[in-house]
Design a protein that fits this description.
Layout lengths: L1 E19 L5 E20 L5 E5 L11 H13 L5 E6 L10 H16 L6 H8 L6 H6 L2 E6 L3 E5 L6 E6 L6 H6 L11 H9 L3 H6 L2 E2 L2 H7 L1 H12 L4 E4 L6 E5 L2 H12 L4 E6 L8
Parallel strand pairs: 1-8, 3-4
Antiparallel strand pairs: 1-2, 2-4, 2-5, 5-6, 7-10, 7-11, 9-10
Helix pairs in contact: 1-2, 2-3, 8-9
Bound molecules: 4-diphosphocytidyl-2-C-methyl-D-erythritol (CDM) and adenosine-5'-triphosphate (ATP).
The site of adenosine-5'-triphosphate has 22 residues, from helix 1 and helix 2.
Organism: Perspicuibacillus lycopersici
Protein name: 4-diphosphocytidyl-2-C-methyl-D-erythritol kinase
Pathway: Isoprenoid biosynthesis; isopentenyl diphosphate biosynthesis via DXP pathway; isopentenyl diphosphate from 1-deoxy-D-xylulose 5-phosphate: step 3/6
Amino acid sequence: MKLLVKAPAKINLSLDVLHKRDDGYHELEMIMTTVDLADRLELALRNDDRITVYSQSRFVPDDERNLAYKAAKVLKDRLGIPKGVEITIEKNIPVAAGLAGGSSDAAAVLRGLNKLWGLGLTLDQLATIGAEIGSDVSFCVYGGTALAKGRGEIITPLPAPPNCWVVLAKPPIGVSTAEVYENLQLHNVVHPNSKAMVEAIEQNDYFGMCQNLGNVLESVTLNHYPEVKSIKNDMKRFGADAVLMSGSGPTVFALVQHDSRMQRLYNGLRGYCNQVYAVRMLGKRNEQ
Ligand SMILES: C[C@](O)(CO)[C@H](O)COP(=O)(O)OP(=O)(O)OC[C@H]1O[C@@H](n2ccc(N)nc2=O)[C@H](O)[C@@H]1O
Ligand SMILES: Nc1ncnc2c1ncn2[C@@H]1O[C@H](COP(=O)(O)OP(=O)(O)OP(=O)(O)O)[C@@H](O)[C@H]1O
């Protein structure tokens, strides 16, 4: 028996860090949304009880370090499942990019195995298990748009954001999320207004959303990697309504409403950046 599952990338429309916690993690307030750039996973039942993982990407490990493997292992061990799975990942989301590719693969495995292994768990139960694998996994279990608090695992759903194009550009560098958080100087940042962003989304106010984009982690990544800052400037020059780095970076995204502006931005960036994508926000949450 085989199952195909989609694992969409996320962007952070807003990312605020409130303080560093005693457990070493940072207390967050983020607004996240999934976009239609996705990995595709095939889950196939095995004849034995082993978990195997394979992807064509040379940037992703084919062993127990893969977040997709970890998701299957946690589920199997927690519930004592005597079954195995062969996971094949078609990797379309850039790796170590701030787009939660690994977390989304893990979430897709949780959702997929819930069906393939016939577990009957709710999305809430899967999201709780997901939090053990990584801070972004709970959000990825639900997808759609949400306010995320705590270390990222406390999720409140939001309506779909105003309709627009999202043009993503990934400079040819990988960024370590751990290093970005370690280097964050909280006394030195401009905090985004998460409340105003939530209101803009709830009122379907496109320009309100544009005005309230903000990410405190830019203070670290833009300083360490000037090329990220320069792509942001180029996007503005090419006519973006608003521009922001996603997560810990280095991917930057631009928002535009009209097809012609999207095309101009896309073509302009493609001139010197290999990984450029014009996508839509998905809006819709995953079903059970
Ligand atoms: C940057 C974001 O992608 C924004 O959505 C997330 O906050 C990071 O999510 P993630 O990659 O799933 O994070 P994890 O795998 O749990 O942690 C990676 C590293 O980031 C740090 N980290 C993560 C989340 C958090 N709230 N505070 C942190 O300080 C952790 O110390 C860890 O060393
Ligand atoms: N299935 C997977 N897909 C991508 N990366 C994976 C996967 N499993 C493990 N990894 C490892 O995790 C690291 C981070 O990859 P990922 O693409 O999830 O980063 P990210 O987009 O910055 O995530 P986030 O936005 O959640 O911080 C990479 O070094 C990669 O080798």
